[in-house]
């Protein structure tokens, strides 16, 4: 039942059983807490998005025009900003010219080939 | 007793109650110590317990625009992943799933907790602050994992000739990394241990890496829309994750049990090892969270990425090269 390799092991059935029981326990904890707390009634003020005092209608308007949306494009903003110099250089190579792409493909293949020959022969 | 029943009891007794209790206790001690170091009185040590109970008694507010089932499922998934990971990590004694999963699975489960927070915050609450927090959490998640992967793969590579299964945590209890070779290996292991401490700070979003929550900037970020029992569940999951990752550090770098040294076995030996383990994780939490949190201000997300990728990753690689030099030469 346990998947064993030279370096590690994993029993998928034990894992699946454990995660299922853990989900049940976590859910049961929530149900226990539910008994202690009053049930939330929908449609009240508390359900509004927290905007730190900003005017909700203005924010909604901006959201509709995509000016204030955090989209998938923004997900890795931290990376793009931190690696800005790398991306600036990398973008220059993306010229759209097919012959240049082919040139890079040949260069990379040559390097890989050399590594395989040198390493493989050692 | 049936093995399945044992698993359930272990999940409830050790994974949930024992590590949950320790997690809240150390959170309370951490808050008290940080307050003392900053010249404040600070909250009582029992405060995290009181917060948890109080949150459980509050309404579980679901934002109007939220995908309700996903919003409620995310904290359950976060808690389930951390209590499952405790089946694989020793807490003073060998875990019940010691032979059922290796370090790769442990890393996966620790990642799942952060992903659950991202799922709950970004895809289901529709809040701008939560979306910003989720974006930062994802970036932190990837940033931390690079040096962490170098540590784990590097150490597994080094112990490979000495043990049968290098990625098993049990293998690390069979060798003493610090004295298995000469001074270069010692320095290399010390550098990897320092890197691991920095990864703990990032993994737990503490101190300078508290970027995804950033209370004074984005009002709690990932957890801004959470309240009541869902927030309590997230708090419990975070407390258990703190114990899980510090226990992982102990299992990798300081697995030596005290009972072997003083020659005590049986139940008393297990008790002694548990107490010794608690002391070890307390020291790790104190150094990697409390001290760092006291002396450093929050970094920007770009600074955090640069720190993990351009400072810590080369630092870990240098440590690994030290270990390699002594092994290969």
Descriptive report:
The complex is a heterodimer of chains A (122) and B (329). Chain A is mainly alpha-helical and 122 residues long. Chain A has a domain of 40 residues. Chain A is built from five helices and two strands. A two-stranded antiparallel ribbon of chain A has the order 1-2. In chain A, β1 and β2 form a beta hairpin. Chain B has 329 residues and is mostly helical. Chain B has one domain. Chain B is built from twelve helices and no strands. Chain B is globular, with a radius of gyration of 20 Å. Classes of the chains: A mainly alpha (122), B mainly alpha (329). Chains A and B meet through β2, α1 and α3 of A and α1, α3, α4, α5 and α9 of B.
Radius of gyration of chain A: 27 Å
Which sheet architecture does the biggest sheet of chain A show? 2 strands, antiparallel
Q: Describe the biggest sheet of chain B?
A: none
Number of strands of chain A: 2
**Gyration radius of chain B, in Å:** 20 Å
SSE pattern of chain A: EEHHHHH
Class by helix and strand content of chain A? mainly alpha
Strand order of the largest sheet of chain A: 1-2
Low-confidence stretches of chain B: none
Strand content of chain A: under 5%
- Determine the number of helices of chain B (DSSP H or I, runs of at least 4 residues): 12
The coarse silhouette of chain A is flat
- Our measurement of the CA-to-CA distance between the termini of chain A, rounded to an integer number of angstroms, reads 39 Å
Number of helices of chain A: 5
């Amino acid at each position: 039942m346990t998947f064993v390799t030279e370096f590690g092991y994993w029993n998928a059935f034990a894992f699946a059983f454990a995660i299922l029981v853990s989900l049940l326990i976590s859910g049961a904890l929530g149900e226990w807490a539910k008994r202690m707390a009053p049930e939330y009634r929908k449609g009240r003020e508390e359900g509004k998005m927290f905007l730190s005092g900003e005017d909700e209608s203005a924010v909604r308007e901006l959201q509709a025009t995509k000016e204030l949306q955090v989209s998938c494009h923004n997900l890795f903003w931290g990376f793009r900003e931190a690696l800005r110099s790398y991306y600036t250089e990398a973008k220059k190579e993306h010229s759209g010219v097919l012959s240049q792409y082919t040139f890079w493909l040949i260069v990379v293949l040559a390097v890989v080939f050399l590594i395989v020959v040198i390493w493989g022969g050692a | 007793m049936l093995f399945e029943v044992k698993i359930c009891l272990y999940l409830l007794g050790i994974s949930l109650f024992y590590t949950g209790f320790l997690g809240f206790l150390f959170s309370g001690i951490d808050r008290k110590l940080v307050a003392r170091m900053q010249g404040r009185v600070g909250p009582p040590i029992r405060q995290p317990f009181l917060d948890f109970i109080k949150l459980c008694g509050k309404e579980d507010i679901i934002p109007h625009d939220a995908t309700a089932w996903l919003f409620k499922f995310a904290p359950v998934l976060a808690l389930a992943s951390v209590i499952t990971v405790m089946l694989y990590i020793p807490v003073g004694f060998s875990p019940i799933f010691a032979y059922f999963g290796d370090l790769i699975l442990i890393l996966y489960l620790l990642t799942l907790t952060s992903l659950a927070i991202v799922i709950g915050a970004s895809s289901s609450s529709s809040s701008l602050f939560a979306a910003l927090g989720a974006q930062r959490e994802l970036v932190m998640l990837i940033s931390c994992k690079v040096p962490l992967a170098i540590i784990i793969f590097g150490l597994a590579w080094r112990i490979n000739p000495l043990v049968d299964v290098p990625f098993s945590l049990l293998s690390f209890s069979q060798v003493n990394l610090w004295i298995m070779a000469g001074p270069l290996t010692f320095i290399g292991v010390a550098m990897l241990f320092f890197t691991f401490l920095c990864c703990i700070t990032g993994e737990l979003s503490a101190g300078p890496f508290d970027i995804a929550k950033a209370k004074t900037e984005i009002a709690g970020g990932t957890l801004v829309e959470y309240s009541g029992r869902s927030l309590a569940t997230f708090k419990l999951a975070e407390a258990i994750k703190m114990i899980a990752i510090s226990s992982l550090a102990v299992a990798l770098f300081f697995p030596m049990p005290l009972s072997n040294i003083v020659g005590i076995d049986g139940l008393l030996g297990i008790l002694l090892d548990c107490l010794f383990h608690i002391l070890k994780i307390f020291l790790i939490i104190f150094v990697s969270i409390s001290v760092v949190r006291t002396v450093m201000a929050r970094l920007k997300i770009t600074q955090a990425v640069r720190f993990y990728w351009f400072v810590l990753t080369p630092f870990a690689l240098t440590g690994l090269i030290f270990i390699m030099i002594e092994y290969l030469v």
